[in-house]
Structure formats: C-alpha cells, structure tokens
Amino acid sequence: MSATRYRRFLKLCEEWPRDDTKTGRDLGTFLRQRVASAFREGENTQISEPEKCDQIYESLARINGNVYRQRFPRVRDTSFTGVAAEECRVLLKGSLQQMDEEKKGLWKTIMERFSSKSPEDLPEKAPEK
C-alpha cells in the first residue's frame, strides 16, 4: 500500500507547477523536497500514520486542482489594497532584491560601486596586509 501512496505523491509533484521567480519560497519545490524526505526508501518506505498521509495527499490534490478557487470565485482579482496580482508580484520581486542588496555587507557594496569588475569577480573579504 505504501507503493501506491508513493506513486500518488510522485504524480502530484509532477503536476504541481514550479515558479522559478520564487527562488527559495516556491511551494512546488518545497513539496518535492518534503516528499523526497518523507519517502526516503521510495516504494519501500513504511508509513507510520497512513490515514494522516492520505489526508495530506487529498488536501494537496484539492489545492492543486483549484477546488476551492472554483467553489469560491473571487469577485475581483485584486487584494484589499486594490492592487492587481501582477503588480503585487512586481513589487514583491523588487523588495526582495532590495533586501538581498541590504544583506550583502558594507565591504562588498563599496567594492561593487567603485569597481569596474562584475560582482561575481569581487573577493569576499578585504585582502589582509
């Protein structure tokens, strides 16, 4: 029976869309990682709580099949702010890039501003003398 569950989860992972714009926060990628860790031995993995496993699968399958989106359609495709979904994606992407810039550190930021080299060619630390 475990083999059947494993195959069902694999099929769900294949159907689940992957969004490359959401690096590090993509639900499809996270789902694939969790299935891989839960079924380490593949079809031979022993499930300690088969009912809970089936319940999780059914929930994920309903989300992937847009059951709730069809059951409860949205009147408008905007958020509470009135901003459209695509505009929210653009704003989120910009703010995430800005946060990455802030995480860099002072030395790397200064070197990028005053250097003609690309950021990948810069050293991680200042050379010691």
Automatic annotation (TrEMBL):
Main location: mitochondrion
GO cellular component, one term: mitochondrial nucleoid
Keyword Hydrolase: no
Cellular compartment(s): Mitochondrion matrix, Mitochondrion nucleoid
A biological process term (GO) from this entry: mitochondrial respiratory chain complex III assembly
InterPro entries referenced in this protein's UniProt entry, alphabetically: UQCC2
Annotated keywords: Mitochondrion, Mitochondrion nucleoid, Transit peptide
Pfam families per record: UQCC2_CBP6
Name of the featured protein: Mitochondrial nucleoid factor 1
Lineage: Eukaryota, Metazoa, Chordata, Craniata, Vertebrata
Name of the encoding gene: LOC103359911
